[in-house]
Amino acid sequence: MKDLFGKALLDYHKGNYTEDIITSTSISDDDELPLPYLFRDFKGMPLLEQKALQLAKGKVLDVGCGSGNHSLYLQNKGLDVKAIDISKGAIEVAKLRGVKHAEVLNVLDESQTFDTILLLMNGTGIFQELIQVSKYLTHLKSLLNPKGQILIDSSDIKFMYEDDDGGFWIDTNAGYYGELDYFLSYKGEKETPMKWLYLDFDTLKLACDTVGLNCELVMEGEHYDYLVRLS
């Protein structure tokens, strides 16, 4: 990866904000991801994120921390937070903004244990494909302290396949409809495409049942998104 995401965060943090990140997927056209949004405070966060942060307790792992918004909020509340991201630039920005414990790390390489694990902004995305969900959930489960919790959000994107008559044009011969190819570009440069996974609640709950995790629906958002608590 070229880490264009990290480069964009660094540009914004250092006052070199001239344009936004452009994203698209295998089923959607180009869309702007405004850099200021990636530096939002608690008031600027969706209700699902706010709820997750209010439920966080004890020692926290913030997975895919980005610029550190969630970590900073929890740190300011007095919680012990470790922030991880695979983006070197993101971790640099998180540290510059005051996140005390931030590390370039894939969650599958994490070995410490926590009371709360946060995976927000479509946290199921890092699972990449349906076939990998059990592997990730099993590993996350191994990182939990007794009575620990995983707070994760996602969206059921079935609505993206709806036609004008209210029917759905999902290809039953293809893979799971929430498996997407994700494309990102910044200042004319294209990032290596990656796989990204959106999970409907029932599919996530079934996967949790399989690996011995309790899956509780905490809150539903306004647009097919939801927050769950795994324990």
Structure write-up:
The protein has a 7-stranded mixed β-sheet with strand order 5-4-3-6-7-12-11, sandwiched between helices. Strands 1, 2, 8, 9 and 10 form a 5-stranded antiparallel β-sheet that branches. It is α/β, with parallel strands linked by helices. The mean pLDDT is 95. It is 25% helix and 30% strand. It has 6 helices and 12 strands. The longest helix has 11 residues, at 201-211.
Keywords:
single chain, 231 residues, 5-stranded antiparallel beta sheet, 6 helices, globular
Query: Termini distance?
Result: 33 Å
SSE string: HEEHEHEHEEHEEEEHEE
Tell me the strand percentage band.
25-35%
Q: Rg, please?
A: 17 Å
The secondary-structure class comes to alpha/beta
What gross morphology would you assign?
globular
Read across the widest sheet, the strand sequence of neighbours is 5-4-3-6-7-12-11
Mean pLDDT: 95
Q: How many E strands?
A: 12
* Secondary structure: helix percent: 10-25%
Unreliable sequence segments: none
Q: Figure out the total of helices.
A: 6
Largest sheet: 7 strands, mixed
